[in-house]
Amino acid sequence: MTPTRRQLLLGLAALLPAAALYPRSLLAETRERLETVTLALHSDQGPHRLRVEVARTLPQRGQGLMDRDHLADDAGMLFLYRNEQSPRNGFWMYRTRIPLDIAFIDADGRIVAIRQMQPCASERPGECPVTYPGVLYRAALEVNAGYFAEKGVEEGDCVSWPGSGSQCLVDVTDDSA
To answer: What distance lies between CA 166 and its chain's CA centroid?
Structure first.
């Protein structure tokens, strides 16, 4: 091996451990841009509209809202799955800095469970608790903690977004009769 090649390889080897020390906040800026859609929550006090990022792939769902310090009041993240998910397929808050509410949504667009999740400060993923829905679901919606209670969104309410195929029906009463 030539001295120049050896120096180059040694230099690269020295940079690899340094990359692990690179601030996560700067690394997070390189994350993939997610599709954003407007979603409607149909409740007795709604509809309520949110701008949500859509996580469709395993890497997108795995990243979720990690490493973020803020989520706008009218924003969230929608996790979509091709197939129905097991009641034992849960969510965790590893590297998630903001408290969240999560709604688990069935194939018909109905909220079947709502849970609260707190940030996990551990650097070890295995030490972060998992939030299980306890029901089958096809999508999940994360929003700021307290959003659902503040807006009167409950289990049984309907959620729709472009392409969801949701059959949300809003009760309309005719007061003119």
So the answer is: 20
**Threshold 0.70, pTM exceeds:** yes
In this prediction, residue 2 carries a pLDDT of 58
Cα 176 to Cα 45, 172, 173: the distances in Å are: 21, 12, 9
Query: For residues 102 and 145, what is the distance between their CA atoms, to the nearest angstrom?
Result: 8
Backbone conformation region of residue 67, classed left if phi is above 0, alpha if psi is from -120 to 50, else beta: left
- Judged by DSSP in three states, 150 sits in helix
Q: What value does the mean pLDDT take over residues 71-75? A: 95
Q: Do residues 138 and 107 touch, judged by C-beta distance below 8 A?
A: yes
Q: How far is CA 149 from CA 65, 90, 114, 143, 144, in A?
A: 21, 21, 10, 11, 11
Residue entry with tokens 């997070």: 28
